[in-house]
Amino acid sequence: MTDSAIIPSAEPSESERNTLLIAYILYGVTPFTGGLAAVAGVIINHLKVNDTGNEFLRSHHRWLLRTFWYSLLWTVLSTLLMFTIVLIPLAWLGYVAAGVWYIYRVVRGAIAFSERKPMPVT
After folding, report:
1. Residue 92 and residue 88: Cα distance in Å, rounded?
2. Are the C-beta atoms of 24 and 64 separated by less than 8 Å?
3. Does residue 87 lie within any of the structural domains?
4. Residue 83 lies inside a defined structural domain of this protein
5. Which of 8, 104, 119, 6 is closest to 63 using CA atoms?
């Protein structure tokens, strides 16, 4: 299995940038679609993260992948807390925290994308 070469200085193609922009838009409209748009976005990210040879784009795909999977994790954990009568307030707090964190990640990533800045790897 060969991985595409990483070209940090090469300018990404317009189609690669548009694909990432579509992913950001899908993540952005997710709160209004009940999560279905994020599923489409994560599929795009999984397909494109290793296809691009540009580290700038790859960092954004990784950023969005982490955003999706960690948001899903915290939402599932909060849902499990809803089954306990005593911990329902903690579950609501988990939903709110996950929602705020999700919006922060999408907005921060979109701003960095528009400024052509890579996202941190961590």
Report:
1. 6
2. yes
3. yes
4. yes
5. 119
Query: Which one has a higher pLDDT value, 57 or 11?
Result: 57
Domain presence at residue 7: no
Total structural domains within the chain: 1
Residue 120 lies in a domain: no
pLDDT for position 11: 79
Angle between helices 36-48 and 14-33 (to 10 degrees): 150
Give the C-alpha distances (Å, rounded to integers) separating 65 from 20, 30, 86, 92, 121.
12, 14, 33, 24, 12
Domain carrying residue 88: 14-114
1 pLDDT exceeds 50? no
- Residue 12, C-beta contacts closer than 8 angstroms, at least 6 positions apart: 52, 54, 56, 57
Residue range 6-33, pLDDT digits in tens: 445 567 788 899 999 999 999 999 999 9
Q: What is the pLDDT of residue 122?
A: 60
